[in-house]
Amino acid sequence: MPRFPPYPAKLLRRSLRLFLTLARIMVPVLAIVEIGQQLGAVEALGRVIAPAMAWLSLPPEAGLVWVTGACVGVYGAIAALVGLAPGMDLTTGQFSALCAMILFAHSLPLEQAIVRRAGAGFWSTAALRAGTALAYGGAVAWASRLTGVLDDPAPLRWLHDTGLAAGAGQGGWAGWLHATALSLALTYAVILCLLVLLDLLDRLGVTRWITAALSPLLRVSGLDPRATPVTMVGVLLGLSYGGALIIEEAERQQFAPRTRFLALSWLSLSHSLIEDTVLFLALGADIWVILVGRVLVTLALVALLARLPWRGEPAPAELPARA
User: Fold this and answer.
1) Does 126 reside within a domain?
2) What is the chain's Cα-based Rg?
3) 103 touches 268 (CB < 8 A)
């Protein structure tokens, strides 16, 4: 029987190991979320939180959209937005605030399960995401209202006729099985490509260059430079992929609890900056609110968390300098 050369065989074993780690988390959580959605639990939770949206200078419907995103994901939020868009009266500032809330806190059951497996607390990071989403969304919406910046009407009516949410929440269990199978296949393909890319970047010395270029940012945030490459993967492409790599790297390099928590906090707050940002920009959100402001808030919060005492470990200022 022919054998794979050493490198492809090692690559396939590693990618399969990472994929199975993710799949064991993803499938049960996705099933639970689907059950809750079909039973109406997600919609009920959205209606409970709807009145509180007035405190954030947002209409009640924004609560249903945000809770749907928090439980189901970005495309679930878009599906809810498509259905509610004709009756919603939002300014660009309010719409950008809502989009930022979705980006800060979406797919919490699934993504925080991955974060927990990677070494950070499920509830602490989920609370960090939800709290930041509410605080940031409220600050942006109120600032827009009080200053008149971004107070032009958001063009939402065209959403009702688009296919952006096609497939979201459709087809019952058959549709769920089909969507889940496609998602798992895509996840494995992306993991395989990422491993090849990361290995290539490491061999070419690009990883060291990226780490050096980001060192000023790392000093501010308190993130261990060793965790930079895999963290950046998640920041750019998604928490699932970055989380899977952090699971592996944390075990291989014996990351300290502080390092895991900071890297995963960063990933929890700001990830998939390319795909998700472009998606909401296309819907009409403001780039300064959903990208620049989100990254700056993430940097500030992670820097603050890095300076808190952590179970007997010295604060970053007390740590010996790395060679």
Assistant:
1) yes
2) 20
3) no
Q: Would you say the pTM of this structure is higher than 0.85?
A: no
Over the stretch 63-111, which tens digit does the pLDDT of each residue have? 988 998 999 888 888 878 877 776 778 999 999 999 999 999 999 998 9
Quote the domain boundaries for residue 34: 6-310
Would you say residue 286 lies in a domain? yes
**C-beta separation of 144 from 91 below 8 A:** yes
**Is residue 81 within 8 Å of residue 65, measured between CB atoms?**
yes
Name which of 72, 137, 83 is nearest 108 in CA terms. 72
Would you put residue 272 in left (φ > 0), alpha (ψ -120 to 50) or beta? left
Domain assignment present for residue 315? The answer is no
Q: Do the domain assignments include residue 132? A: yes
Residues ≥6 apart with Cβ < 8 Å to 39? none
- Per-residue pLDDT of 266-315, as tens digits, reads 989 998 887 788 889 888 899 999 999 999 999 999 999 988 876 655 55
The two three-digit tokens of residue 318, written as one number = 């007390």
Site of tokens 């959903």: 290
Q: Cα–Cα distance between 78 and 231 in angstroms, integer?
A: 27
Calpha distance 67→45 (Å, rounded): 7
Please give the tally of structural domains in the chain. 1
| CA distance between the termini of the chain | 48
Per-residue b or e along 114-144, where b marks 16 or more CB atoms closer than 10 Å to that residue's CB: bbbbbbbebebbbebbbebbbebbbbbbbbb
Query: Which residue do the tokens 């430079």 mark?
Result: 225
